[in-house]
Amino acid sequence: MKKTLLTLVFSIIGATQFLVAQVSEKETAARQWIKSNLKELKINSDSDINLRFVRKSKSGETLRFQQMVNNIPVFDTEIVVHFNPSGEISYSDHNIVKELVHISTTPQISKERAIEISDKEIGVSGMVSVQESNLFVYNKLDNTNLIYRVVTNFEENPGSWEVIIDAINGAVLSVKDIAIKCGTECDKNHLHTAKTSGKTKFFMPVESNSTLAFEPGTAMVFLSDPLSSAKVAYAGNYVDGNDADTAELNAQRVLVNLPEVDNVSGTYKLKSSYVEIKNIENPNRGLFTQTNPNFLFTRNADGFEAANVFYSLDNSLRYINETLQVNCRPFRNAGILWFDPSGQNGADNSRYSSAGNDLAFGEGCVDDGEDGDVIWHELGHGLHDWLTGGSLSQVNGLSEGTGDYWAQSHSRALPSQWTSADAAYHWMFNWDGHNACWVGRTTNYAALYPGGLVGQVHTDGQIWATVNMKIWDRLGRVKTDTAFLEGLALTNSTTNQQNAAIAVRQAAIDMNYSCADIKVMTEEYTAKGYVMPAIALRINCPGTQTVTADGLGNYTVPSFASLANAINTNCDAVVTQSPAAGTVVTVGTHVITMTATSGTSVNCNFNLVVQASLGVNDVVKNTFSIYPNPASTSITIKGENFENEEIEIYNMLGQKVMGRNLVTNESIVDISNLADGVYVVYFMNAKASHKFVKQ
Fold first, then answer.
1. How far apart are CA 181 and CA 162, in angstroms?
2. Contact of 46 with 29, CB cutoff 8 Å
3. What is the pLDDT of residue 653?
4. Contact by Cβ (8 Å): 23, 44
5. What is the DSSP secondary structure assignment for residue 199, as one 8-state letter?
6. What are the φ/ψ torsions at residue 404 (nearest 5 degrees)?
7. pLDDT, tens digit, for every residue of 563-596?
8. Residue 595 bridge partners (DSSP)
9. Positive or negative CA dihedral for 481, 487, 489, 492?
10. Within the chain, which residues score under 70 in pLDDT?
11. Cα 394 from Cα 541, distance rounded (Å)
12. How many Å separate Cα 153 from the centre of its chain?
C-alpha cells in the first residue's frame, strides 16, 4: 500500500452501459426542477441532458443526468437530483460545462480504428481484461474536441491506460496511465508508453453461463493483521521476513467460515456470489483451486493472501448488502468483484480499477493482501465508485479518506484489537505500514478543514477519515456506516469534503435518524472545520398504527410524540398531536396529525386503525402467549389453532421488520437481528396483536 493506485472515475463515466437510458418515475419531476434552475445551471435546456443512472435506496432515489451535444455525451459532466422517501428533492449537485464551444459531432474514424491506434500507441499485448472505446465531446485539453477515449487494462503492464484520440483526424491527443500513484512519493498521471513483451493481444476468456454451485468452506486468515490481534509492534519475529513463516505470525491466523465457495465438479475455487479470484495482472500465481473447500494456508504460501483477500472482501460486501441493506455492488462482471491477490508486477502497490471494477494487490515489503486495512481501503474506492455510478471524487482526497474510513470502521469493529488507549488504535495499515515499509496513515489526524489541506490526496483524506471515525465513536458502526455510504451516493466527481459532509448528514435526515443523531454529526463536522447549513424544521410520522378497541368499541388515543421525529438544527422543537392524547375514538380509521413547532410549525399525518375487539368465542379460539418477554435472541409463540397462521412484526414506527408463517402451535422466532426496542406481533388471520420487548 506504499503507493495506492486508484483508477480515476473518468475511466467509467460515459461507458457504454451508462449511455443506455435508464427509467425512473421521478424523471419528469427532476427535469422540472432542472428547468426551473436553468439560469443557475447555465445550460441551454433540460433536453440537452440524458438520464444515465438511477439508484433507489433506503435514503430515497437519486437520478444522474449527463450533459449532451447532439446525443454525444460531454465527458465528465453530471447533474445529480436526489428525492427523499417522501418524494421531495432534498439534495442536488452538478458538474457541467457552462460554455461549450460548438464543434462537429460526426466522427470521421470508427471506434475500431481508434482501438487500433490506441493499441499501437501503448503497445498492447498479452491478455486484455478491459478495453472500451467511447465517443465524447471533450474539453479537458486546450481545445474542445470530438474524441474517442480508449481505456485498456492488460496484464503485461499494470494500470489503466487511457488514450485520447481525435475522432476527426485520428491524432493522438493524450496518453497516460490514469491510475493515481501516490504514497511517500507521487507519480500521478505519469505519461509514458507501456512496456510490453511482444505477445499477441488476446482477451480474458468469458466463462460460460452455468448454475453456480456454492458450498460453505473455511479459511485461515488474519483479523485484521497479526500485529493488531497480538497487540505487538513490528519487530522480532513479528516482521515480514520475505513471507517467512514464524510460529508467532502463524499463531495469529484465525479459522473463519466462508459462506460460499464455488464447486464445479469437485474443484473448489475462491468464488462467491460477491467476489471472485482472477489473474488480471502479472505475476501469475494461479487461482489456488483445490479438491476441498477449506483454504488452510500458512502465510509463506501465496494461497494465504488469496484466501485472506477473498474472506475480507466477501465479508465486507455481505455486511453492506445484507446487514446494512445498502445495495452496493460492482456494475460490471455481473455484480461480482474480481480481485487479483498477486498483481502490480510484484511491486509495493495496490489499486482499484474503475474501468474493470476490480482490485489488484502488490507484494512488495509486506504483501498487501495480508493487511485487512489495505484490502478494505481499496474496496472503499470501489464502494465510492459503484454508489455514484462511476462518479467517484478525489477532490480534497475524498476517496482516499473514504477508503481509510471504511478500513478503520471494519478493523475497529473486530474483537481483541487495539484499545483506545493505544496509539495504534487510530493507525491505518498497522501491518503494511508504520514500519520500514512506509510510514502509514492515521484516523486521528489533527488538521482542520479547509486550512489543513496540503494538496496531497492521501494526506488530505485523513481529515475526512478522522471526522467520520469521531462520529462512528459516538453513533456506532451500523448507523455511521449506513449514513456514510448513503451520503456518498449523493456526491459527484467534483464533490469536496465540505459538500460530502452535507450529503452524509442529509442522507441520515432522509433515513429518519433521530435529531440527537443528526446533532452529533453536525457537531463533529463543524468541529473539524466544515460549514454545515442550518436544518429546516421537519417532522417525520410513524407508519399506520393498528390497535384493538375495548369491549365497548372505544379506544383512548395515547401520546405518539415519542414515535414522531422532529428534526431541526438545535433539536428544540415541541411536538403536539391532534386528536390529543386522552381522546376517545371508536372503531375505524382516524387521521393523527403531528405538529412540530420551533419558531415555525410543520405537520405530518398517519393513520390510526382501531379494530373491533374479538368476540368471546374468537378469544378462546385464538388464545396465545409470547415468551420470554423481554427477550434477547428469540421468542416462543404458543397457542391453539395456529395452522396456516401468518405473523408480521412491526417496530414502533409502524415499519414491518419481519414476517413468517406459523406451522405448529408452538413456534420459536429468531429476533437476534432486531435492534433493541418495543415491537408488535400482528396475527394476520386472527386479527390480533401483542407487544414484546427486545433487549
1. 15
2. no
3. 63
4. no
5. P
6. -65, -40
7. 999 999 999 999 999 999 999 999 999 999 999 9
8. 576, 603
9. negative
10. 1-21, 180-198, 207-212, 614-623, 641-643, 652-654, 687
11. 38
12. 24
For cell 442522507, what's the residue? 507
Measured CA to CA, the distance from residue 367 to residue 341 in angstroms comes to 9
Nine-digit cell at 269? 475455487
Hey, what's the cell of 74? 460531454
Residue 400 is placed in which grid cell? 482516499
Place of cell 494526506: 459
Q: How far apart are CA 339 and CA 100, in angstroms?
A: 40
- All cell numbers assigned to 77: 459532466
Q: How far is CA 579 from CA 138, 298, 560, 574, 605, in A?
A: 60, 68, 10, 16, 11
Supply the pTM of this predicted model.
0.85
> What is residue 435's three-state secondary structure?
coil
Residues 314, 275 contacting (CB under 8 angstroms)? yes
Side chain identity, residue 222: F
- Report how far residue 532's alpha carbon sits from residue 530's, in angstroms, rounded to the nearest whole number: 6
Whether the CB-CB separation of 392 and 399 falls below 8 Å is answered with yes
Q: What are the grid coordinates assigned to 598, written together? A: 420551533
C-alpha cell at 384: 465510492
Cell output for 663: 406451522
Residue keyed to cell 474501468: 355
Task: Return the pLDDT at 656.
Answer: 78
Strand partners, 442: 427
- Name the β-bridge partners of 659: 648
Q: Tens digit of pLDDT for each residue in 276-302?
A: 999 999 999 999 999 999 999 999 999
Q: Which three cell numbers stand for residue 365?
A: 515489503
Q: Which helix (H) or strand (E) holds 595?
A: strand 588-598
The answer for residues whose C-beta is within 8 angstroms of residue 660's C-beta and 6 or more apart is 646, 647, 669
Q: Residues 6 or more apart from 31 whose CB is under 8 A from it?
A: 46, 49
Question: What local confidence, expressed as pLDDT, does residue 666 receive?
Answer: 82
Of 632, 675, 216, 231, the C-alpha closest to 414 is 231
Query: What 3-state DSSP class applies to 151?
Result: strand
Tally of CB atoms within 10 A around 315: 22
Distance between CA atoms of residues 432 and 415, nearest Å: 20
Burial 426-457 (b: 16+ CB within 10 A, else e): bbbbbbbbbbebbebbbbebebebeeebeeeb
Give CA torsion, residues 484, 489, 495, 501, to 10 deg. Answer: -30
Beta pairing class for 145-154 and 126-138: antiparallel
CA atoms within 13 A on the CB side of 499: 18
Q: pLDDT at position 211, please?
A: 59
- In this structure, are strands 554-556 and 145-154 parallel, antiparallel, or unpaired? unpaired
Evaluate whether 398 touches 464 at the Cβ level (below 8 Å). yes
DSSP assignments along 263-282, one per residue:
EETTEEESB-SSEEE---SS
Residue in 221, 224, 252, 227 with CA at minimum distance from that of residue 422? 227
Instruction: Write the secondary structure of 514-529 as one string of H (helix), E (strand) and C (coil).
Output: CHHHHHHHHHHHHHCC
Is the distance from CB of 366 to CB of 307 less than 8 angstroms?
Answer: no
Helices (H), 12-158: 16-19, 27-36, 38-41, 111-122
